[in-house]
Amino acid sequence: MKWSPILAALLLLVAACKRPAEEAVALSPQAAKGKAMFSTLCAACHAPSSKLVGPPLSEIAGLYRADPAGIVRWAVTPGRKRADVPPMPSFRGVRESDLADIAQYIIEAGTAAGKQGP
Questions:
Q1: How far is CA 109 from CA 38, 88, 115, in A?
Q2: What are the structural domain ranges in the chain?
Q3: CATH number of 5-116
Q4: Which residues form the Cytochrome c domain (predicted)?
Q5: What are the tens digits of pLDDT across the range 40-66?
Q6: Overall pTM > 0.70
Q7: Local structure of residue 94 (DSSP, 8 states)
């Protein structure tokens, strides 16, 4: 089979667009469970190493690395830390064990993203 130059270029483009910070992270079982929920509940506002609406995972991991339960507390009763962005909504309706899984994912993925840089 002969490859079309356009197809080859498209495949190279797709490969280049993958997020290496997410791809290279070997997650613990708890963080792996949290990754899917993070994608659904959090990814619209938080990226691995760049600010969207909320801070990047690398910044959150730096703040809470030794206190993953702090992420859970913040998710249940968030405050407002930055005047230039909307406040985070409460995730009070999400089970605490699920929030703990998300927190572990944030710490592991954020730590990896911080090592790789922006």
A1: 11, 20, 10
A2: 5-116
A3: 1.10.760.10
A4: 29-110
A5: 999 999 999 999 999 999 999 999 999
A6: yes
A7: S
Tens digits of residue pLDDT in 80-118: 888 888 899 999 999 999 999 999 999 999 999 888 765
- Three-state SS at 48: coil
Tokens of 60: 């959150």
Residue 2 clears pLDDT 90, i.e. is over it: no
Structure tokens given for 58:
């690398």
Q: Which residues lie below 8 Å from residue 109, measured CB to CB, with a gap of 6+?
A: 21, 22, 25, 27, 31, 35, 48, 57, 61
Calpha distance 48→99 (Å, rounded): 18
CA 113 to CA 47: how far, in whole Å? Answer: 10
